[in-house]
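BUG: 3D viewer hangs when loading the predicted structure for this chain

Environment: internal workstation, default settings.
Expected: structure renders.
Actual: progress bar stalls at 90%.

Input used:
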Amino acid sequence: MPTTRISPKHQITIPKPVFDEAQLAPGDILDATTVNGKIVLTPKRLTDKIAAVKFSDAEQKILARAQAKMAKINNDIINSKGLTKIEIEIATKAGLIIKDQAYFWTEEWQKDVRSAEQDIRTGDVSPAFDNAEDAIAYLHKESAKI
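C-alpha cells produced before the viewer hung:
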C-alpha cells in the first residue's frame, strides 16, 4: 500500500499509482471527508473528462475563422455573415455548436436574422399586444389592407 507524509502546511502528495488509478490531473478538485477515522479523498468532477478532439492545421484555421464569425454574429449581427458548411462542421466537432442548432449559424438563417434586426431598429414591427385576440384582430386588419 503506497504511503505519503503530511507537510507542515497540511499538504500531502498523492502517490503516483493512486493518482494514476484515480485518473487525476493537476488542478483537479477533491472532496475531503473522514469515514470511521479514515481520510477519504473523492475526485469532484465538475464536467466529464472526454478525449480532446485532434484537428489538423487546416481544421484549426477553419475553427479560428468560425470562432471569429460567431463572435461577430453575437456582437454585431447587422454586419456579420453566417458560417459555411465546413465551418459549422468543424465548430460542431469542437463542441462550440450543438448539432441540433447548427442551422442558426448558416448564412441563410443569419440573413433572415439580420433582416429582422433591421426591422426592429427601424421600428418596422407590429405593436405589442396584451392578448392573442388583439393580435389576431390586428392580423386580420392588416391582411385586409393587402
